[in-house]
Amino acid sequence: MDPITHAVVGLSIAVLTGEPLALSNPAIIGCVAGAIIPDGDIIMQLKGDYVYLKNHRGISHSIPMMFVYAGVLTGLIWMLFTNIELWKVFQVTLIGCFSHIALDITNSYGAQVFWPLNKKRITLDLLLIYDPMLIILCLTIILPYTRSIIPPYIAVFIFIGYLILRQLMKKQAKDIVFKSLGGEYEPLRFRIMPSMIGLIKWHFILSTGMEKVIGEVNIFPRRFKIIDVKKNIEKDLYKLAIDTPIARFFSQFTPIFHVDCEKKEDNYVFKFIDLRYYIARDYLHHATAVMNRDLDVVTSLFHPYAKSRNVEV
Model's pTM, two decimal places? Predict the structure, then answer.
């Protein structure tokens, strides 16, 4: 989720706990700051896209770090206000911190919530990175006028209902995919996730032993489209590709990527594609590894957000 969404959610949580809506309220400050602070890992952007994307939603989004954030923020707030209920501010701030990782695992990027026990990114593939429905519900809780019309607990129940609806939509989208394909492909792996745009549009990746089928599903009106079919390269070439530094990075960065290979006179050119995000008729993240005939890697580049951007790995 984006920082604005996290801040609005943190503010609505503070209001739900019964805290007066005031900028001078330490509990409000703590909850909002707690809801935003895990994305402080953006400071790694100073070292470039590669370092930032490699570490984003890693340690900074783990359960142990939520307690560290809450403790540090509570200490800072105490230094500013001195006369505060420390335990109360710590609790509200901690809830704000946990709201951040709870929201982040609802979208397709996920987070390493259980670090250091497990470095796998947990994801539910339910909400968009920017979900307008979530913002609207939070505003009904925060704004005094709407709060007087729609009680906050009703907004909470609506949000729970919205999550259930998204899960049902996801199931329906999956059913549409398999009915539309009609048994044409034998899936070894299948993943369906919200599209980058559109509340009722879903993106799917179906992997077989020979290829990967990428497509989109629209719930209403009901539409099904195959975007791309990517043939898997030979196993020997794939073994060479995944032993490169960029492949090791990609396997941590995304659980779903494809490798293409172009054989040239003097080298192999391996192209890595993150299949999760498809927008403007192309995938969002790419990488390139060039290997000479002696099987030495001579070029290793990450292309974040656009193929024209080159970051050495």
Answer: 0.87
